[in-house]
TrEMBL record:
GO terms for molecular function: methyltransferase activity. The keyword Ribonucleoprotein does not apply. This is Methyltransferase type 11. Keywords: Methyltransferase, S-adenosyl-L-methionine, Transferase. It comes from the Bacteria. CDD domains: AdoMet_MTases (cd02440). The keyword S-adenosyl-L-methionine applies. Gene3D superfamilies: Vaccinia Virus protein VP39 (3.40.50.150). One of its GO terms (biological process) is methylation. Residues 56-136 form the Methyltransferase domain. It holds the Pfam family Methyltransf_31. The lineage of its organism: Bacteria, Bacillati, Bacillota, Clostridia, Lachnospirales.
Length: 269
């Protein structure tokens, strides 16, 4: 494939941007309460440390920073960190944590898909650009921006080959294509773009299993918003989601198991 062919194929699949923002807003409190990742608990931090991607005093951009925990982890490594996310609630939580930690990290609401790096003065500004487990990179253009913002290292971490005990059943019930297909394609397209641009990307993998549980009504909101972000749902389909989750619940609780292969792609610009 040519670069243009990859761009034509790898385009944003988000059907309802506001549903996506609402979904991630709803997760802000839980994300902010998670532990700061270390080289022992995180593939991304391990690679940054092992490959010496950052030196003390250098700059890092955390794309799709969520609750800010990776931004704070990068700061602990000595970096001057900027974290961005399209969810206002996530950035609010980042600011709360920044104040509580007396952190020097900078956080702001930005949509990476539509960001203007030139206007912000971010072209080739950062020594490391990190996009860890974020939906911010959803197209060829948003992927290529990682390299455009970096002057040395880039690291993108994404889940692939993902199965979900509840979501898979819902997709089947609603006769929808699983959003996991786009995750698998993203890894292939990312490598192709880097190779065509003369880079020598490396990839490492890690198997993970996640367990989550929600009260049934919370699960209805969770899955409705999640599926709405990538598919246009009718009122009938939303009722199907609600009915299915009430049938699946045990003691008014929905338990979910996710299996995934985490893929980390890293390269120098």
């Amino acid at each position: 494939m040519t670069i243009q062919e990859v761009k034509d194929r790898w385009s944003p699949g988000m059907k309802d941007p506001q549903a996506a923002i609402d979904w991630w807003n709803s997760k802000a409190g839980a994300f902010a309460s998670r532990d700061i990742p270390t080289a022992q608990s995180s593939l991304a931090i391990r690679l940054i440390t092992e490959k010496q991607m950052l030196e003390r005093g250098q700059s890092s951009l955390d794309v799709g920073c969520g609750g800010g925990r990776f931004s704070f982890a990068l700061e602990q490594l000595g970096a001057c960190v900027t974290g961005i996310d399209f969810s206002p609630r996530m950035i609010e939580e980042c600011e709360k944590s920044r104040i509580a930690r007396a952190s020097s990290a900078c956080f702001c609401v930005q949509d990476w898909q539509n960001i203007d790096l030139q206007a912000l003065g971010w072209k080739n500004k950062f020594d490391l650009v990190l996009a860890n487990m974020t939906p911010a990179v959803v197209s060829a253009d948003s992927f290529l921006k990682l390299s455009e913002a970096s002057r040395n290292w880039c690291l993108m971490v994404k889940p692939t080959r993902r199965s979900n005990s509840i979501l898979d059943k819902l997709n089947s019930l609603l006769e929808l294509e699983a959003d996991t297909n786009s995750l698998d394609e993203a890894l292939l397209y990312a490598f192709e773009l880097l190779w065509l641009n003369g880079k020598k990307p490396k990839i490492e993998y890690e198997e993970q299993q996640w367990e989550n549980s929600w009260k049934t009504e919370d699960a209805v909101e969770e899955y409705t918003l999640r599926i709405s972000s990538s598919h246009s749902l009718s009122s009938y389909q939303k009722e199907q989601i609600k009915d299915f989750l009430h049938r699946e619940s045990i003691d008014n609780v929905i338990k979910e198991t996710t299996h995934t292969t985490i893929a980390a792609v890293y390269w120098q610009v």
